[in-house]
Amino acid sequence: MIFMKKFVILYCLACALFFSTISLAQSEEAIPAPDFTLKSLNGEDVSLNQHRGKYVLVNFWATWCGPCKMEMPALETLYQRFKSRNFSLLAISNDMFGAKIVEPFIKANGLSFPILLDQQLHASNKFGVVSLPTTFMIDPKGNIIGELRGAEDWASPDNLLYFENLLRN
Fold first, then answer.
1. Separation of alpha carbons 42 and 167, rounded Å
2. CA atoms within 13 A on the CB side of 10
3. What would the pLDDT profile of 136-153 be if each residue is shown by its tens digit?
4. What residues does each domain of the chain span?
5. CATH number of the structural domain 26-166
6. Global pTM?
7. Could you tell me which of 118, 106, 44, 119 has the C-alpha nearest to residue 72?
8. How is residue 144 annotated by DSSP?
């Protein structure tokens, strides 16, 4: 009986931890997203503020991160579906060797969304990223409206419906 109680408690704690890491955390208080400027794969400087006025999905990832690699095709689907709307996607690579590692991965996987390089982890530290992948949703005013730690199927019907409703004009 004691074993069963301990198991139930541990199971509940594990479920709470699991669901707290995959749910989109939303706050009623406006939390401004920290601005950053990073180099893109083609060498351009890109800042978060350049995307003001749009919803921006900021995804922190790395080529060595298995869950990150798994969610990339779904991010491409999301990007292709909503890129012509009031939406931007910025994928920020934490790979320490930069373009030399990231570019072949992007080409091999046919990804077309903007990839930024954060080799020194400047943007990652500003956002408090402690695990990969971590994704933030930024509203057109530049406030963080959601955070997700862990991989997600961005092309699932529920997620596509969420973005459809969010971007409805």
1. 28
2. 6
3. 999 999 999 999 999 999
4. 26-166
5. 3.40.30.10
6. 0.83
7. 106
8. E
